[in-house]
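This part of the workshop introduces the protein records we will be handling. An example says more than a description, so a record of this kind follows:
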Amino acid sequence: MTGQDAILGLLMESSMSGYDIKHRFEELLSYFFDASFGTIYPTLSKMEKEGLITKESIEQHGKPNKNMYTITEKGKEQFHSYLDSKLQNNVLRSDFMVRMFFGEFAEPALIQSWMEEAIAREEAHLARLKNDYERYGKYMTQTQEICIQIGIASSEGNLKIVRDGLARIKQAEQGSQPAPNQ
């Protein structure tokens, strides 16, 4: 799966500006697909050259022209080829997990700070997911709803594991400290 596949999928719904595409990536797609502003526009340019999409420049008064992108028949064929292709393995990249893997080389206080930050980020992520589900749920297809439900369950599971792990690490740290003077 590439950014091109995701963009073609968005354009299957309707024509969109680059800003609209970027906005969709930042909203619901951001939970399972990472695409930056710097990769979207070069990908659109490449797709236009390949004949997968067309670009129409719309004049706007007092603002720069707006480019609207539309999928072509060739683009639709390419997108359906993607849908018909074999599922690829999920890719997980996590700075937090790499640091935790090598946690034996870090001080316990640093590890605890990573975990506390991971908890705060995951709580914010979960809140955003739940908020988006509440906002967009009635407009989602069944398959889109399944995607966000997977995201919510995954986030809740991650939170439980990191919270439980933090409690174990704190407990172990307290057990290794000398008893206070009495």
Summary: The beta strands are 16-17, 53-58, 66-71.
